[in-house]
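User: These chains co-purify. Model them together.
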Amino acid sequence: MAHPVESNSSIKLAWAVSWSAFWTGFPFKLIVALLLLAGQVHPWEGAGLVTLLVVSVPIDIWAVGLTARTVFLERLGMEVRGPVGVTLWWQGAVLGALVLGGAYYAVGATVAVSQKVAAAMIALIKNVYPTLPIAEQITLELLLWTIPTAIVMLVCGLIWLQLFGWRVKRFVITSGQTTSASLLERVRQWDYARVPADPTLVLVSFAGVIVTLTVVFWALLPVTTPTPHPDYPLPPVEKAAKPVKPEELIKKTEVTLEKAEAVLTALEKEKSKETKKGKGK
Amino acid sequence: MNGLLQKVYDFVDERIDLKTLEAKMMNEPIKGGSRWAYVFGSCLLFIFIMQAITGMLLMFYYIPSADHAYATTQYIIHEVDYGWFILSYHFWGSSAMVVMVFAHMSQVFLWGAYKKPREMIWLVGLLLFVIVMAFGFTGYLLPWDQRAYWATTVGVEIMDKTPIVGDFLARFLKGGPTPGQMTLSRFFVIHVMILPAALMGLAGLHLFLFRSAGPAGPFRGTLEELRAKTDFFFPRQVWKDIVAIAVVFLTICSLAFIEPVQLLEQATPDPGDYHPEPEWYFLFLFQMLRLKVFSGELGQFVAGVAIPGAFMLLLAALPFIDRSPERNIFKRPVALLSWTVVMIGILVLTVSAILNREFLE
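Assistant: Joint model of the two components:
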């Protein structure tokens, strides 16, 4: 006799687990990506990409484990013990790598062929209707090659879901135990398991993490724009003003005044001598 | 500390009956339990609050005059500490608001949540949609660069084609034969005073109507299942809302980093090499206007005014036309097909508009 889990659709089961797991892990990955961006490291290339991928693995394992247990309990009425996340994650990753590899060639070939077909069809239309406007041509060509491409992508996605769903079912059948709890109890079981026993501690930790991340973010954030406008006038570099020391300034002024007074006295003396000489003549 | 907080709470509670208010806010029963599909409204509220905060920060430096708007925007980007980030966040926040409005409206449409007794929530929601689009349109002019100037020129020209009120609206918005100081002043006042006031009032009404009618709940499931899963707003839906808000916030921040705001040349009445184009969420309409079938005065009126106007009227009339109590989208093939066609149409026309750019060089 077939196991009751077998009657479930593989695609629906895989979708329920993977879609929820994606959104569960996504906020955490986004935080890492944002911190990398604030530090001006691109998360889509080089060290940034490696960091993001390394961080994503444990996040995904945790997210898959969490959502899979919930789906098994709520939808299948099955309780599974053991490392759910790791087991399902590596199987999903291997299948993903295989399907993605195949999809890369399938989608690439579809794009190439459908674009050629679209171009040929446009050329044919232009023979009949030479003044085909450019806006219509663009939209028509776009539809002609994106529809088959979208279908191929959808089929590749469905293949992965079918394969992953098949693995999920096998896993539940071999490692799961049917729960005797009613629907209400099953719904509440995992729901309550997620409500923390000490909400204050969780709230304080949560707030602490947010404050730390905010401080790190603002510390990393560039103060001025990383992409200045090419024509924006650069502000003139101002020379640093010398610090004013009042006592020294007064002394210096006094010395200058004394010197000036001495010069003035000398000049006055010289002038009076010249006047006396003039009178004497 | 807890004792002090409790005293403050009791003091306020004695005067405004805080406990009842709290119970009303947090203990709203959600049929069928909390769901990720219900987070869009909260996200919209969050985005609006952030837009208001970043907008106010920008106003500390921005001068809404034709002589200073461009220079002060450049000053915000280049000189003000973190100004580039605040401006870029505000810019991407407006796009996020449009995306979220589309997501929220789609969810309500697909869930059949516009049906009796929620017709008024839907109608007020449509008005909020118009306000969000108006926010985008008026805010786009404020940096006063070529992109801003010409997008507004094109937009006002389309508006001009509306029968009876079009000419008045265009003249009122421009305040002269070509966009200038009067246009900038009027757009600024509409953007920072009229629209926020209207949005706050209507959003309040929207929430009040929503709370009065209650959430629609899932469109399928047996009575037993729905009863088993029925939950209160706090804590599970609150938690989902917080997570969704965090995702929205982080996404806007990431976009502000990846594509920060960069101005073009200062606005002039001569477009030069620049090809006028509206903001991305109006591109589908712009591309529709380029189609041969809509060429000429009448065609432009049909594509620019009649079709969008008729579409909005149809949306407004929807709860009164579709009176069937069936809410399951998989049992409403016309609704599902219409939504798919509209979404694919918008997507295809938007991408076509982007591809069309290379033929303009």
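The interface with chain B takes residues 23, 26-27, 30-31, 33-34, 37-38, 133-136, 138-139, 142-143, 146, 183-184, 187, 191, 195, 221, 223-229, 231-232, 235 of chain A (CB under 8 Å).
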